[in-house]
Each structure stands twice: as C-alpha cells, then as structure tokens.
Amino acid sequence: MSPALWLTGVLLVLALGLPALVLALLAVPVAGRAEARVTPGGVDLRSFSLDWPGGWPGTPPVRLAREAAGVPLGVAVFGRPVSRGRRASPAAVPRRPGPRKVRRPARPTVPFPLRPWRWFWLAMDLLATGPAVAQEVGHLLSRLAGSVRVRGEASGQFGFDDPADTGMAWAALMAGPWRGLATNLTPDFTCPVLDLRVSVAARGRPLAAAWAMGRFFLARPVRRWWWQRWRRRARARPGRASGLPAGAASGGT
Questions:
Q1: What kind and span of H or E run contains 132?
Q2: What are phi and psi of 88, to 5 degrees?
Q3: How far is CA 185 from CA 166, 196, 215, 240, 249, in A?
Q4: What are residue 65's DSSP bridge partners?
Q5: Distance from C-alpha of 202 to C-alpha of 22, rounded to nearest angstrom
C-alpha cells in the first residue's frame, strides 16, 4: 500500500469517526445534583455533582463534583481524583528592592456572562421582533423541558413583613401538587425570615438539548434577527459607513 493511499484512509477514518464519537458521547445521558441554602444574604451553593453517564450503577466513570462549600471543583475518573501535581518552585534568589512604580488602579470590569441586564435587553430585543419569535421561544422551552427530567426538594421556613403576604405565598405553595417538586416549608407569620434548603436533581441528554438549541437559532425568524443584528454591528464599525479605512475615517494619518 502506498503512503498516499494509507494517509488518505487515515484521514477519512478520522473525518468520519470523530464526529460519530462526539455524537455518541453527547447522546449518553448526564445526571446532575446540586444543593444550596437560600438566605436573605443570597444563595450559597453547598454541593454540586455532574455524573457521566447518568444512572451508572455504582461509581460513575466520570464525575465533576464539589463536595462542600469552599472546596474547589474536582474531577474523578472511576473514583480516582484527577489532579495535576504542582511543580517545585525554583529556589528564590534574593533581589535588591527597586523603586516602586505607581500604578493606576484598574477599573473593575464585569465579564459578559455576569451582566444580567445585557442578557435581559437581548431577550427583549429578540421578543420584540414579532410573534413568530415568541412562538419559537415557546417551542424551545417545551423541547428543553421534554429533554431534561428535573426533581427538586425544598425545606425550611419563610415569612414576610406582612402576614397577609405570607399567607398568600403559603396558599400558592399548597395549591399544588407541583410536578417534580417536593416541599416541606413552614410559614412564619410573626417576623420576616428566609432560610431554605433546596436540592435539585436533573437528568438529560446533551444531544437533545443541543438539537433544540440548534433548531431554535436556525429557525427563520430567529435567523433573520441575529443576521440583522450582525449587519448593524458590522456597519457601526469605524470606516464602514463612509467606505474609508478606520484610520482615515477617524482623521488619523
């Protein structure tokens, strides 16, 4: 066999085998569980675990878990933790202290995923496109809800400043049963209090969620929205509107 033919066969196997392997891995169900405590100070994530594949008898092959608050996230393969050893730092060489440089304090920046208002306005802009987009959003939510099975449990006590508000919230909770949610809450009509312990367990296939997201973004109304948004951002760049380079449009040389 000639080297060229052998190389062509290897490339063909890789081109066909890698996508099939990725699809097979995404088709395997994944199970996750999280426990948190909700107080007036915020939400404290106590523990978190993600098992692949989900429903594996005994120890799962791959587990991404955080066992307790303050413990870093760890990965375990067949029950054995995977960690990279720290390299020994070289011996510190004493250096003579030099003059300190005065640095301006850096402006705190918020990463894009942590800007809730940015996501809110993007969602409002998408929904304002028309009723067809709202219909596609409904289809997306129904597909995602069908691809993931979620079970939750909430326990603790709660209360508001007005006992009437506490009674209305308690009546709404008791009007269930809520699908997949078990509640063991105690209302407090004497003083405002919030101390809840919430645990959520979910199981689903990443391939089904990815298929639903792909169908949503490739739908005609949604595709038209992000295409127009990309064109507006491209036209808003310096020099695009006048047909000149960026330096000439800004007056640079």
A1: helix 131-147
A2: -70, 130
A3: 12, 8, 39, 59, 63
A4: 49, 74
A5: 22
